[in-house]
Amino acid sequence: MKNYKKVFFLTLLCVLFTFSPISGCLNAARSSAGLFLSVSAAEAADASGTSANVSDTSAGTAADLPNSTAVITALENTTAGMRITYAEVSGADSYVIYRSTSKNGKYTKVGTVTSGSADTFTDKSSSFKNGRTYYYKVTACSGSTSISSSAAVSLKYLSPQTVSSVKSTSAGYAKVSWKKNSKASGYYIYRKTEDGSFQLVGTVKKASTLSWTDKTVSCDVTYTYYVQAYSGSSVSAAKNTASILIPQKTSLTSLTPVSGGIRIKWSQVSNAAGYQIQLAQNKAFTSGKKTVNVKGASTVSTTVNGLGSSKKYFVRIRSYKTIGGKTFYSTWSSVKTTTTKRKVTVFAGDSIMTGLYASSYNGISKMGISGSLQVVAYTGINTQTFSTKAAFGSQSCLSKIISYNPTRVYIMLGMNEVEYVTPATLVANYKKIIQKIQKSCPNADIVVLSVSPVSQSVAARRKGFQQIDSVNSKLKTMAGQLGCRYYNFAAQFKNSSGYLKSEYSGGDGIHWNAKGYQKFAELITAYDAKLD
Fold this sequence. Notes:
alpha+beta, eight-stranded mixed β-sheet, five-stranded antiparallel β-sheet, 16% helix
């Protein structure tokens, strides 16, 4: 009987000793670490993240423990912090989660979760340090009574991994690049197609390697990638994804040099949104580079002007597609080279234009325009006789222009007929001349010049000259309709009353003096430079 009393007394002492308050729960028993853990329902919602391996600091794995015991089943790095997943314990109505920076150190409560609201909790602490290992425990409670406590489970925190870019290579592969994680020992690369799920496609085993090339991609398929850093069994979350689509490649079929430009043709890519062409004066495409975008899959040729005379160019092309507002480019084609022809600029017109080569004015020599400069002008010529009168041997002015296959044509007509015909008739004849030049010289850049003003006294005596402004307005409209340019140099030759400035008049109130040709040369030189 004495022995029974002794056993009862010792048992009572043990029970009283084991009941002590921890975070609002009375402990029915202690774990080997001596602490129990849990979370708040308000913090139970977790941002998406990527699972990492769980390291259990107790003997065996946490998943092998029975459901009657509190157990952490997973510990993961996420974009929001560390996510703890635990098994529900029979009879528990809440769970408390604790964190420490060492297995046997001081544990701090990080939250409580009400049973049934979730079996996970995300610790969103702002104090996480990249590369540090953190330890967690969970306590299951029923009311104010602790039912069970988990063993400590640990995981190294790795900051969410960022993908910097995904770009196509010259070989048609996808190159994935990312930012360095200083605490990582390597990286995992995951990929998916439009309707597929993410699969591991690559592993980089050096922390200093910050790119990986996917050589298994196909054209016209959208691939999406994310990257995770790893260190041992710890894996980071993926902070972002990056996508790429590599359109079908096109190729150059021909390069035809023209005066100051190149006619370019290429093969069609039926489902392309368009094409991008690059021209440069060196094979690295760094010197004198020019980029031209051509919209539409069916357009397979274009002429690039303004390249200068007798210059060698390297040319390449790629197709592109636009999806969701983002443009994806194919790989570049093989490079072809050609040399532009010498720039030929023609000044065409009537007697005013003849002054460009007159010895007394020599306006052509004052032009700061490179290449060959030619004057095709004839005194008394008008829009009706420009294409019929034999002004250059057996050639008309129109035929002479076409024979030069010019890079650019500056044409000024109308002074010899503005008195006698309506503006509409004059412009209709002018239009036929421009169309014939365009047909025979499709690469020529045509600039229609305004009709020069006359002096006030001339306009008063010869009323027909008062139609000049109306003609110029219609010429501007015509140029826009024909896809050529219009340059109103005459605005610089007018005085405040709208008539030819006396300082530019050659004496008859119609033609120019040397100063007038000097001014014309300055204006055209500046205008031409802007076009190139």
